[in-house]
Amino acid sequence: MVQEASGPQLLVVDDEPELRSLLVEYFARHDFAVRRVADAAAARAALACSQPALAILDINMPGENGLSLARWMREAHPRVGLVMLTTASDTVDRIVGLELGADDYVPKPFEMRELLARVRAVLRRAETTAAARAPAPAGAPSPRRRRPDASPSVPAVLDLDERRLLGRRRRDIDISAAEFDLLALFARHPNRPLNRDQIMEQAHNRGWDVFDRSIDLQDHAAATQDRDATRTSRS
Length: 235
Fold this sequence. Notes:
Layout: E1 2-3, E2 9-13, H1 17-29, E3 33-37, H2 40-49, E4 54-58, H3 66-76, E5 81-87, H4 91-99, E6 104-108, H5 112-133, E7 156-159, E8 164-166, H6 177-188, H7 196-204, H8 214-228, E9 229-233
Parallel strand pairs: 2-3, 2-4, 4-5, 5-6, 7-9
Antiparallel strand pairs: 1-3, 7-8
Helix pairs in contact: 6-7, 6-8
């Protein structure tokens, strides 16, 4: 089923009829053209007809699950954004989903405004990547490369509502969803030391395995971005 709208096309894949209807209604109000299907087989058929900008996939579905569908989509439709829906306790599924190429994930139950913000953030990152890869117009001068040791510090604005990190001239700085969550945590607790357990719980709203070290890599990357951030905006 397609909900007519002028915005980006969205594919919702979930076996819960009530949730599908809720997502269609909510995203249509925000100018998305939404298609909804109940399982992976229907999703494959829908993708054969037209390619959406982004798909929201539930992991736990009867038959082929969302992880298998995500793996296939990454191979067959690499430009389609992927946001996974998981239950709060499925840590392994979330990690596997990210390793398969999912752009972000949201644990159930979720706040609709957060899901909307995450979807928009994935689409913005895709647009930024596509623009960076686009060939320069014929005759355009080649950009001068700056020496690595001559790069100035770039002030940045962290927009918590829109989930965006903006640099000079309000240009988007490409960061992952996990890096944004860490920056947001630091911004909400200025000048306050946070230990590793607090970061795991508060930045991701979930528990992690005590031996998982991925948070340390994200923490280092986010801290580097945070040193350049000069103010936080809730516009």
